[in-house]
């Protein structure tokens, strides 16, 4: 690694720098799913592509239906909690589609240019930051609803919710802009061509030592801050639940929602720390086995968590559930899976 830093500051042959830093991040590339695909056979790549694409398409369908549901009724469009849920679900859906797109591009052995890969990578970073920040805002909204019920309507307004979403997107965009500025230190203009030698992935764009430091530091600060905020909100709700003036049912529901937010944050964190885990086990396991383990982890901690919000709110929320069922079941009147009470609720919500 020290040799790479010396080459970075001393050598004038810039063509050797990408090669040098690809060696520097060799351990990371062992755990980069888009790079490891080159070690798979054709049939295995096709099989794993099917195994990841099918659940991804199912979850994209569920998420897309949920997004449509959240825009189909005035009660969803005019309630802060559902507006925040729409923002969270939108970011998760885009991130899910982005991750699977990069996977399939790598499975097809397509190598991109640095600018194209950079745009895709930074786009994925944008939505990755939006999700935990939105969870923080949603947790604070539940905290205000339980601890300050009389002021909830004046604090959590549509205008304030919109401002919070703008701040979330602005902060996420700022983190992407920081990555872009750090990447500009690399002298791309002096390369013979911009074609990448490896498959596109997040680690492929860590061409500068500062980019690597930022990539390791920023997620830790982000998720630590989000975790502390959600935990404090949960403790506040727990304390308020003991008060005689607090609605016990509302407090219990908010407490369970905050616990689910913590689970979602935990899954998001696991998606950022699974690379070091795979690096550790790569020292004792065969390379092909590492690839297979990583694909399993990809489905469990990358694909599945991106559909968790739709499943949680689609099942738990009594207002969303009947409308979501209506949109998921095209011919709901003939469907044997819907009870008469559910059909009655759907009819009321659809006609209201």
From TrEMBL:
Signal sequence coordinates: none
GO cellular component: membrane
Keywords: Membrane, Transmembrane, Transmembrane helix
Listed InterPro entries: GPCR1_Superfamily_Member, GPCR_Rhodpsn, GPCR_Rhodpsn_7TM
Transmembrane regions: 46-70, 82-106, 112-140, 161-184, 216-237, 258-277, 289-315
Keyword flag Cell division: no
Subcellular location: Membrane
Main location: membrane
UniProt-recorded Gene Ontology molecular function terms: G protein-coupled receptor activity; odorant binding; olfactory receptor activity
Source organism, top-level taxon: Eukaryota
Domain spans labelled G-protein coupled receptors family 1 profile: 62-313
Pfam families: 7tm_1 (PF00001)
Keyword flag Transferase: no
Entries under PANTHER family matching the protein: G_PROTEIN_RECEP_F1_2 DOMAIN-CONTAINING PROTEIN, ODORANT RECEPTOR-RELATED
Protein name from the UniProt record: Olfactory receptor 24-like
Species whose genome carries this gene: Seriola lalandi dorsalis
């Amino acid at each position: 690694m020290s040799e790479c830093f010396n080459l970075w500051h001393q050598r004038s042959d810039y063509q050797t720098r990408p090669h040098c830093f690809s060696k520097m991040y060799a351990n990371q590339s062992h755990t980069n799913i888009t790079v490891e695909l080159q070690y798979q056979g054709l049939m295995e790549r096709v099989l794993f592509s099917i195994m990841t694409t099918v659940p991804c398409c199912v979850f994209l369908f569920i998420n897309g239906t949920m997004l449509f549901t959240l825009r189909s009724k005035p009660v969803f469009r005019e309630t802060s909690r559902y507006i925040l849920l729409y923002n969270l679900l939108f970011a998760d859906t885009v991130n899910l589609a982005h991750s699977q797109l990069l996977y399939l591009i790598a499975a097809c052995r397509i190598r991109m240019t640095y600018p194209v890969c950079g745009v895709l990578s930074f786009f994925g970073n944008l939505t990755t930051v939006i999700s935990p920040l939105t969870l923080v805002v949603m947790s604070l909204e539940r905290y205000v609803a339980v601890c300050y019920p009389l002021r909830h309507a004046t604090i959590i307004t549509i205008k304030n919710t919109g401002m919070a979403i703008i701040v979330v997107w602005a902060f996420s965009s700022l983190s992407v802009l920081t990555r872009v500025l750090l990447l500009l230190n690399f002298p791309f203009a002096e390369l013979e061509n911009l074609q990448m030698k490896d498959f596109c992935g997040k680690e492929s764009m860590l061409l500068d030592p500062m980019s690597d430091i930022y990539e390791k530091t920023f997620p830790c600060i982000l998720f630590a801050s989000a975790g502390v905020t959600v935990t404090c909100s949960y403790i506040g709700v727990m304390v308020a639940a003991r008060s005689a003036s607090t609605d016990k049912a509302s407090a219990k529901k908010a407490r369970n929602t905050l616990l689910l937010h913590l689970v979602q944050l935990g899954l998001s964190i696991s998606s950022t720390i699974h690379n070091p885990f795979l690096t550790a086990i790569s020292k004792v396991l065969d390379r092909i086995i590492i690839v297979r383990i990583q694909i399993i982890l990809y489905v469990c901690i990358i694909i599945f968590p991106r559909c968790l919000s739709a499943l949680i709110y689609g099942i738990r929320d009594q207002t969303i559930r009947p409308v979501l069922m209506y949109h998921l079941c095209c011919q709901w009147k003939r469907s044997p899976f819907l009870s008469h009470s559910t059909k009655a609720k759907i009819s009321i919500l659809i006609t209201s």
